[in-house]
């Protein structure tokens, strides 16, 4: 192990070299073998110093305490413990330690200053605490009293919520019997009081395990679930947020620092499991409202499946499948038109289908998937009953829900004996509800044509038959959607039309007619959009649709309705109308080869060419597509799936193609709507949204396009485009966007650095492509104002400064302006750079001369400013510059007559000559220049 004294000395050397990990390691080894108590005290206090440097304050306080236990008068150990305790927020204990230090050394200025500062902080904290306690009590008195008017109570409720969101306020509310008082507010039964209490509880338990655990036990999961289940959308949403705060705090997801003393709770597994079981029970509870059911399903969707598939633990998913899969299937299988069904909103069943899909996707192996499938099959078989048609209806509705969720699983269940036969039987039923459920199931079953052979063979005739015979508009429109879906199987391939010429246009016309009919209910009109989502694969249909402004506006209004199940269909329709779907690159040689071998070659419709697409985009913008998109982005995450987000991102990118349209996009909130799409969703969707953001940020004023704090959220998406895997246009527009942001303020520049954009920007300054190189250099020019960036140029062993100097000698004027501007600011801010410039390349003097002789005044001015900074920085360097041809260049420029265009360069040249004269490098001489002579 070694000698403790040698290990201590070695640790001291590492500490002086700022190698704190190695130093702590040496002290630890020495502690293990040390027998001398005095040396042991030194070792503990030295290791405490290491922990202080590494910001491990709890360990620093512990080691300092061990040193003090050995030697109570160890002043260094006392002060180190004081520093650690202060950082941990234990001001009273820290004050006592520094008080002892000041008693031992009464003239030590550091101790006296710390004593004064801590004393003031403690007094301030006590004052705030007393003030907060008083405010909390006053607010509860107002809320629970009978005297105050409505406005006063509303103000007190809002103040309580604000106070609960601050850690100090949350702690005071909690300590002053606040949870019981909040329960009294809930028991009043008044919605505004319940909302205030729930929101205050959310603030109290956010990021704090101990308080979250206390609320779970004091209020009770059953009580919280009963509040979540009330028929009040706002209360259900607020309670859902409270559950999420509790879950994040107990599971450790919320890592925010709320207070210096970290709450330690030994085990939260039992509480987390109880919450999951309670939510699963809520899903099938008839006393739970539709809004409450939606929020229970949302909480399960957000917290059960893994967000990162690399995480090996998916035990929550397996637990939910074992204890709740049949319960979720029951929700999916509800038929709203039948009596005695669970209360639901328009969105409930789709949310449940999304949850089923996420659970299935989270499974890791075939045995787990087989178990999932067997549970589903057993559930559906159990519902088939020849004597009870309603149970059969529930079974087919469940299949329909699975087809909207884990489609592959739903498709397998379609092959179960009796399923397809039952669907056909229901289609021929006289009951309208039977036909409706069967037709919807047929529609969902034909999603993937390659895997739905039965539907292809029998679907068209079956649906046509229903469409002709039924007089019910609801069934008619659903049958029409099925025909639309089957008729669009060829996608946008002009050569693969399923129906006769003109048939798709007729179907689309009927869909538009239903869509624009305000007398038809929203749920039925939604199916008209579903039909258009498939028919708009046809270029004739999409062109006719965008010409029909009333139909467009009707679709946009539907997208803003409470029924959010329409979002996917609207997104699909818009993707088709803008041709923003993924297109395979057509290689001419392969086309010829395919023709030669008599293989099918996709054909492009004449109306799918660029000029037609541009016209459609303009029409969509005119009809108000941006306001519809911004509203859609705000939808709940369970409804707005990653696939829907990707489609919305694709549409946004297509709409931002023409810079002239950016004004209307920004004015209608498109800029801020793009931010969540760029941060969440599929990888392809995030890239598309980030590219659209870059297009806007590159041209528009970022402060107007992304108002308030949103501007800082734009940085990360733009930085994500600075990647070799992205194409050149994405790189270029991201750099231009970052250039605009970097020009605004220091906080944004630091955000760009924090997102690790600097190495990427520097790499693109080496890029062969002129425009990308120019954009990167301009971005660096704006970033160079930041001290952290300047320090990168001062580091030894890199070519950053050399590249900047060489870029000043480029033939491209715009690159020269940006590079020279950056170098001018750099040499002004850091004098060391001035001498470093002369060492990086032998061409430095020639490049400076070229800048000073440039025919563009702005380049010339920047060059002379660089020379001025170098002359001003070092006398020897100034002498070298004046002895070169630069003296003649500066003299010629300085002698020029004043001119508004060239004045900055002329003034800079004269300033250079004045400094040279003051340094004694040139002798004074007179010349006439507006009455001024040297």
From TrEMBL:
Signal peptide: none annotated. It comes from Lepisosteus oculatus. Coiled coil: none annotated. It holds the Pfam family UNC45-central. TPR repeats lie at residues 41-74. GO terms for molecular function: Hsp90 protein binding. This is Protein unc-45 homolog B. One of its GO terms (cellular component) is A band. It is found in: Cytoplasm, Myofibril, Sarcomere, A band; Cytoplasm, Myofibril, Sarcomere, Z line; Cytoplasm, Perinuclear region.
């Amino acid at each position: 192990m070694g000698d403790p004294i040698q290990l201590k000395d070695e640790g001291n050397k590492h500490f002086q070299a700022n190698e704190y990990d190695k130093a702590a390691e040496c002290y630890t080894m020495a502690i293990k073998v040390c027998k001398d108590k005095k040396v042991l005290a030194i070792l503990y206090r030295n290791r405490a110093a290491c922990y202080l440097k590494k910001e491990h304050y709890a360990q620093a306080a512990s080691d300092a305490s061990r040193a003090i236990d050995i030697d109570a008068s160890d002043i260094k150990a006392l002060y180190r413990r004081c520093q650690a305790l202060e950082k941990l927020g234990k001001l009273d204990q820290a004050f006592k330690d520094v008080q002892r230090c000041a008693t031992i050394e009464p003239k030590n200025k550091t101790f006296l200053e710390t004593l004064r500062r801590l004393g003031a902080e403690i007094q301030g904290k006590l004052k705030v605490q007393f003030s907060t306690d008083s405010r909390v009590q006053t607010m509860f008195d107002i809320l629970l009293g009978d005297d105050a008017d409505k406005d006063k109570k509303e103000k007190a409720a809002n103040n309580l919520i604000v106070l609960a969101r601050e850690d100090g306020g949350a702690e005071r509310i909690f300590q002053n019997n606040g949870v019981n008082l909040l329960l009294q507010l809930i028991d009043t039964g008044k919605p505004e009081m319940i909302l205030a209490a729930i929101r205050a509880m959310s603030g109290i338990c956010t990021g704090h395990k101990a308080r979250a655990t206390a609320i779970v036990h004091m209020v009770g999961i059953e009580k919280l679930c009963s509040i979540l289940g009330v028929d009040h959308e706002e209360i259900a949403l607020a309670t859902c947020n409270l559950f999420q705060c509790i879950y994040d705090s107990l599971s450790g997801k919320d890592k925010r620092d709320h207070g210096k003393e970290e709450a330690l709770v030994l085990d939260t597994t039992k509480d987390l499991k109880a919450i999951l079981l309670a939510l699963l029970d809520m899903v099938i509870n008839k006393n739970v409202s539709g809004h409450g059911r939606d929020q229970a399903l949302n909480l399960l969707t957000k917290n059960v499946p893994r967000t990162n598939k690399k995480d090996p633990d998916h035990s929550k998913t397996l637990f939910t499948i074992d204890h709740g899969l049949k319960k979720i299937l029951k929700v999916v299988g509800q038929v709203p038109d039948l009596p005695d069904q669970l209360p639901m909103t328009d969105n409930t069943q789709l949310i449940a289908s999304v949850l089923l899909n996420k659970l299935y996707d989270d499974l890791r192996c075939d045995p787990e998937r087989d178990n999932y499938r067997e549970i589903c099959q057993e559930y559906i078989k159990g519902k088939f009953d020849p004597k009870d048609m309603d149970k059969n209806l529930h079974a087919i509705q469940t299949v329909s829900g699975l087809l909207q969720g884990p489609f592959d699983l739903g498709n397998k269940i379609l092959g179960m004996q009796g399923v397809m036969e039952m669907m056909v039987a229901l289609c021929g039923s006289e009951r309208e509800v039977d036909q409706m459920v069967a037709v919807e199931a047929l529609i969902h079953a034909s999603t993937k044509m390659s895997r739905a052979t039965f539907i292809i063979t029998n679907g068209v005739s079956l649906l046509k038959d229903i469409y002709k015979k039924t007089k019910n508009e609801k069934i008619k429109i659903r049958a029409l959607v099925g025909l639309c879906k089957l008729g669009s199987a060829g996608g946008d391939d002009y050569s693969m039309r399923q129906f006769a010429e003109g048939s798709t246009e007729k179907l689309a016309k009927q869909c538009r007619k239903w869509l624009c009919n305000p007398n038809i209910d929203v749920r039925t009109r939604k199916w008209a959009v579903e039909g258009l989502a498939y028919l708009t694969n046809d270029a004739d249909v999409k062109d006719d649709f965008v010409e029909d402004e009333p139909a467009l506006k009707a679709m946009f209004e539907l997208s803003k309705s409470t029924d959010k199940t329409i979002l996917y269909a609207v997104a699909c329709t818009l993707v088709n109308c803008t041709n923003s779907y993924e297109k395979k690159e057509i290689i001419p040689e392969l086309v010829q080869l395919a023709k030669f071998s008599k293989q099918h070659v996709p054909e492009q419709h004449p109306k799918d060419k660029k000029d037609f697409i541009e016209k459609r985009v303009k029409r969509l913008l005119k009809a108000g597509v941006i306001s519809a998109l911004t509203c859609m982005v705000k939808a709940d995450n369970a409804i707005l799936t990653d696939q829907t987000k990707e489609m919305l991102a694709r549409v946004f990118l297509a709409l931002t193609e023409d810079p002239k349209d950016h004004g209307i996009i920004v004015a209608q909130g498109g800029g801020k709507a793009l931010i969540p799409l760029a941060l969440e969703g599929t990888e392809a969707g995030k890239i598309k949204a980030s590219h659209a953001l870059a297009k806007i940020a590159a041209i528009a004023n970022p402060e107007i396009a992304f108002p308030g704090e949103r501007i800082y959220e734009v940085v990360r998406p733009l930085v994500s485009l600075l990647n070799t895997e992205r194409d050149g246009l994405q790189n270029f527009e991201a750099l231009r966007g970052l250039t605009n942001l970097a020009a605004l303020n220091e906080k944004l520049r630091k955000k760009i650095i924090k997102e690790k954009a600097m190495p990427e920007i520097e790499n693109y300054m080496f890029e062969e492509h002129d425009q990308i190189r120019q954009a990167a250099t301009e971005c660096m020019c704006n970033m160079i104002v930041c001290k952290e960036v300047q320090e990168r140029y001062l580091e030894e062993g890199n070519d950053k400064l050399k590249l900047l100097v060489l870029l000043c000698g480029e033939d491209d004027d715009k690159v020269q302006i940006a590079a020279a501007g950056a170098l001018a600011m750099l040499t002004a801010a850091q004098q060391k750079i001035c001498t470093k410039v002369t060492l990086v390349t032998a061409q430095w003097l020639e490049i400076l001369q070229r800048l000073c002789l440039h025919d563009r005044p702005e380049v010339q001015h920047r060059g002379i400013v660089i020379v001025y900074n170098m002359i001003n920085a070092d006398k020897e360097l100034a002498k070298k510059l004046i002895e070169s041809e630069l003296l003649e260049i500066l003299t010629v420029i300085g002698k020029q007559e004043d001119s508004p265009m060239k004045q900055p360069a002329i003034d800079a040249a004269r300033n250079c000559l004045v400094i040279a004269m003051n340094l004694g490098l040139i002798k004074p001489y007179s010349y006439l220049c507006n009455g001024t002579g040297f």
